[in-house]
Amino acid sequence: MNNIVFVLFLLFCANAFSNDAIDRLDKLKSQLRELKKYEAELKDYLSDCGKQKNELAATISNLDRQKRDCENGANEVTRNLIRLRIKKTQHQVNVSNLEKELKEKREVLAKLLQERHILQNKKAALMIQDTGLSSAAIQLQEIYDSSMSLQNEIDETLSFYDQISSSHQEWLDNLLLSVEKYVPEFNNIVDLESFFLETKKINLFRTSTPNESNILEDKKQYFEKIRVLDASLSELQEKLALFAGSTSMASLREKKIDEGLLESLKEQDIKIHETRISLAKSKIALDKLQMKRGYLSFTIPGNWNKLAEARISASSLSVSATAIASANNALNSSDFYFKIKTSLDKRQFKTQRTFREKYCPRLARIYLEEAKKYLSDMNSILPGLHLDSILLGKTVVLLKEYERSFDIYESSIVPASESSGNYFKERKRRLTLKMEKSEKLNDECKDKIKMLIEKDEDTLDSERAYVQIVENC
After folding, report:
1. CB 282: neighbour CB atoms within 10 A?
2. CA torsion sign, 354 to 360 to 361 to 366?
3. pLDDT at 342
């Protein structure tokens, strides 16, 4: 019984469980259908998501590309910004420089405007002075014409001096010839007065001595001419002084206008001064000529011993007269100055070239010594040449300049001549180079060069031989 009840219970339980399972199964089927429906929706959604994924991938790719472009753009912008900052700095510097230039140009413009104002004032003053300048030129021309007219009178006076001095000089020369003819021992006589008294030969000269009146008359005429000329020269100089000291001339000199006019004025004044000197010299020379005739007239026994002096100086009197005549224009004697200068230039060039270019210190020293001797000779004879004072001054200055120049050369040449090893090497090197180009040389030159190289001697003779080769080959 219990078993049946148990079985029934089991059956009841099984039925109840079965019904419950069926219900659950129905529910599961219903859920399964919903799940399948949801699955279909999910598949549709996933399909849509796949499509969106591709779109998103393309979008992301585009965004990445845009990002790279933006980064490149940012870098470019940064670089451009740096360049702009540099340009900005440069522009600031340029602006600063331009401001400085503008300031300087404004200052220059202000100065130019000021100068323009000054120049306008000067122009106005010059226009006012132009009339004065023309007037001054006319006055100077008048003075110049007067001077030229006076110059002709001066030339005639000096010509008259030449005539009278020549005639009296001829008398002196004839008298001295008589002395030497009749008294051969004249050169050895010490006391002329005793000689003439003892030998009674004084009558010889008294008979050949003309009257003093002729030279006194000539001298009187000449001195009168000089007096007139001197008065004319004083008048001309006074005109020049008034002209030079005038207000218009002072203004011209101050403003340095028409230098040619001022130079003409100075030259005219110098010529007048030189003419005065010439006339004064001629008067002195004529006085000396008269004195020498007095010495030789033997009217005063105490002057007999001066015959020797007259004899010595008579030979140079005609030269002095010529010098005085030509001293009227110092330029006539300027050839003397340029001849000395040319000679000194040649000697200096020869010495310098021998030393600096030909490397021969011993030979250069000889040339230098010759040049210094020439200079010494000129210094010794210069006082006896009776040169015009201006020309003499210029010549003395010239000789001093060359003396200093030769002293400077001597300080280099003398030590080099005493220790000339480097100069010898240089000569030898140049000879060797010359031999290397021997196709341009003739056989004689080749032999000379070869012989000098083989000798290998540093002597004065070798220097002379080297110079001959340099000059002739």
Report:
1. 24
2. negative
3. 81
| Opening angle at CA 329, ends 326 and 330, nearest 5 | 90
- Token pair of 174, please? 């004839």
Pairwise CA distance, residues 116 & 203, whole Å: 90
How large is the average pLDDT for residues 95-103? 86
Q: Return d(Cα 193, Cα 191) in angstroms, integer.
A: 6
Whether the pLDDT of residue 320 is over 50: the answer is no
Most confident of 140-144, 241-245, 405-409: 405-409
Report the alpha-carbon distance of residue 448 to residue 465 in Å, rounded: 8
pLDDT tens-digit series, residues 249-296: 555 555 555 555 556 666 666 766 676 676 667 667 666 655 555 444
The span from the CA of 196 to the CA of 191, in Å, is 9
Q: Determine contact, residues 129/248, Cβ cutoff 8 Å.
A: yes
Q: How far is CA 344 from the centre of its chain?
A: 21
Residue 318, both tokens: 């005609």
**HSE-CB for 140 with a 13 A CA cutoff:** 21
Binned at pLDDT 50, 70 and 90, residue 189 comes out as very low
- Same domain membership, residue 322 and residue 202: yes
| pLDDT over threshold 80, residue 215 | no
- Give the separation between CA 311 and CA 387, rounded to whole angstroms: 22
For the beta carbon of residue 349, count every other beta carbon within 10 angstroms. 11
Domain of 244 in residue numbering reads as: 125-329
User: d(Cα 449, Cα 263) in Å, to the nearest integer?
Assistant: 59
Quick check: helix, strand or coil at residue 357?
Answer: coil
User: Burial, 136: exposed, middle or buried (Cβ in 10 Å; 0-12, 13-18, 19+)?
Assistant: buried
Q: Is the pLDDT of residue 151 over 60?
A: yes
Distance of CA 278 to the CA centre of its chain: 38
Percent of the chain with pLDDT over 90: 1
Count of other CB atoms within 10 angstroms of residue 245: 9
Q: How far apart are CA 260 and CA 266, in angstroms?
A: 10
Report how many domains make up the chain.
Answer: 2
Residues 211 and 172 in one domain: yes
Q: Yes or no: say if 136 and 249 are a contact pair by the CB < 8 Å rule.
A: yes
Instruction: Please indicate, yes or no, if residue 20 is contained in any of the structural domains.
Output: no
- What is the rounded average pLDDT of the residues 42-52? 85
Same domain, 366 and 320: no
| Helices and strands of the chain, counted as H and E runs | 13, 0
| 325 and 349 belong to one structural domain | no
pLDDT, position 144: 63
Residue 230's closest CA among 161, 289, 278?
278
Is 388 a member of any domain? yes
Tokens representing 68 are 């790279």
- State residue 177's pLDDT score: 60
